[in-house]
Amino acid sequence: MSQYRAIRGMVDVLPDETPLWQMLEQTARDVLAAHGYAEIRTPIVENTELFARSIGEVTDIVEKEMYSFPDRNDDSLSLRPEGTASTVRAAVQHNLIQSPQRVWYMGPMFRYERPQKGRQRQFHQLGVETFGVAGPEQDAELLLMCRQWWTRLGINDELTLELNTIGSPEARASYKAALTEYLRERFDALDEDSQRRLDTNPLRILDSKSASTQAILDDAPSMTDHLDEESKAHHERLCQLLDMAGLSYSINTRLVRGLDYYNKTVFEWTTEKLGAQATVCGGGRYDMMVSQFGGRATPASGFAAGLERLVLLMQTLNLDATFDPDLYIVSSDENAFGQAMLEADRIRAEFPGLGVVQHLGGGSFKSQFKRADKSGAAWAMVFGEEEMVSGKVTLKPLRANEQQMTLSREELDTFLGQLERLTNEY
Ligand code: ATP
Ligand code: MG
After folding, report:
1. Can you say how many angstroms the Cα of residue 353 is from the centroid of all Cα atoms in its chain?
2. What is the overall mean pLDDT for the chain?
3. For residues 245 and 137, what is the distance between their CA atoms, to the nearest angstrom?
4. Three-state DSSP class for 147?
5. Ligand 1: which atom is nearest the Cα of residue 257?
6. Which of the residues 52, 151, 237, 269 could staple to 136 if both were Cys, CB 3.0 to 4.6 A apart?
7. Does any ligand 1 atom lie closer than 6 A to the CB of residue 131?
8. Is the beta carbon of 309 within 6 A of some atom in ligand 1?
């Protein structure tokens, strides 16, 4: 018997996990709104060239990870592997960059990678992009905002900020030349990947996972010696602002990031709790991209966080979220069910902060109460024969050590009002 399965590397998020996802997403929305960032939603599919040109022809993403296909008109399209290119495209197309902009997006990204824990072929990012501020204060704001998010999620203690500056394109070119020369003299000792990269993307060798290559890099020329004055000043002021805010970081001069478009500030938030997939968030400055896309030269800076890795980290720390209803409604027969349905409908309209689940599919009281228990609800609300006669309802506590109560409709509304206030406070 054949059975359909999800595509390899593409994952179903099941109902017992979605409360945690929703908490993560809602917290992000709250923090972003509190900093004046607005959401932007762009298509999942773009012209392949858009990604190839901005991310870089010789990056892993463009060389081997994109889901590209000809559409029926033979145009080459790609599922987006990241969100920055689309956001810049949209910002230029709709003239959003007249004055400074702060935007964010959240959604699925697609990369053909080897699936493992924290690495999928469809994964989700929260991305933030800012346009129009050239100074380091914009980078500082982004990093402080990250810290607010981590704190609200309860994971701030688990994350380290790694920071670097990769300078101006000219500084990078001069450093690239020096690094290439140094590495070419030691070509035979490099791992195979790094040998291949020496001609195409030598800076990527800096974050090679090979121990022998890393040992060679210990004595390699340092980016620091090639930095331009403006980038140096930018970096120093950023560090000063972070120091002021008590946000600690470690300078990692080998941090270059896998995408070509960065300049000056680059950073990653990493954790020791997730093995090889240690980076939960990465970003930096990309001051050249807007003009590359045909817009007026506009400084830009942003980051993207991987939601799967944040979920994994929270699960590792046993941080969880659940959706438990407040009321689970049971009824004795068809007549009582009808009454209960109307009452549930009324309660949801008048107490919109309450979660009200009605038992469907009949069955004995005993089996209905079993389901009520399993639902996680705080109270069972009973519509039995007695209640039909008296016009009252019975509330039976399922969790807390409370008394069972039989209430008139008026008393019930007072009680539900209190319950709703309590729920909202929490
Ligand atoms: P990595 O080095 O782990 O491949 P990256 O440098 O390719 O990451 P970015 O393009 O900067 O990642 O994306 C930002 C974040 O998105 C990463 O820090 C990570 O948390 C997440 N991410 C990237 N690729 C994947 C993936 N295939 N599966 C799950 N999360 C991912
Ligand atoms: Mg990658």
Report:
1. 27
2. 95
3. 12
4. helix
5. 6
6. 237
7. no
8. yes
pLDDT band at 218; cut points 50, 70, 90: very high
Distance, CA 306 to ligand 1 centroid (Å)? 6
How is residue 296 annotated by DSSP?
Answer: P
Quick: pLDDT tens for 385-413.
999 999 999 999 999 888 999 999 999 99
- Mean pLDDT of the region 279-283: 97
- 153-194 pLDDT, tens per residue? 999 999 999 999 999 999 999 999 999 999 999 999 999 999
Residue 409 tokens, joined: 């409709």
Structure tokens at 5: 């399965």
Structural domains for the chain:
18-168+228-316 (3.30.930.10), 327-425 (3.40.50.800)
- The Cα 287–Cα 261 span in angstroms is 8
CB neighbour class for 16 (10 Å; exposed up to 12, middle 13-18, buried from 19): exposed
* pLDDT at residue 426, rounded to an integer: 53
Both structure tokens of 272 = 């020791």
d(CA 359, CA 414) in angstroms, rounded, equals: 24
Ligand 1 pocket mutation, candidates 24, 162, 279, 314, criterion most atoms within 8 A of CB:
279
Q: In what order do the strands lie in the sheet with 250-251?
A: 38-39, 101-110, 122-131, 300-306, 279-285, 263-271, 159-165, 250-251
Query: Is the Cβ–Cβ distance between 355 and 325 less than 8 Å?
Result: yes
Take atom 9 of ligand 1 and give the residue whose Cα is closest.
Answer: 282
Q: What is the band of 226 on the pLDDT scale with cuts at 50, 70, 90?
A: very high
Fill in the amino acid letter for 150: W
Distance 391 CA to ligand 1 centre (A): 59
- Residue 209: predicted pLDDT: 87
Element (H, E) at 231: helix 229-244
**Residue partners of 258: CB distance under 8 A and separation at least 6:** 59, 60, 61, 204, 207
CB of 281 sitting under 6 A from ligand 1: yes
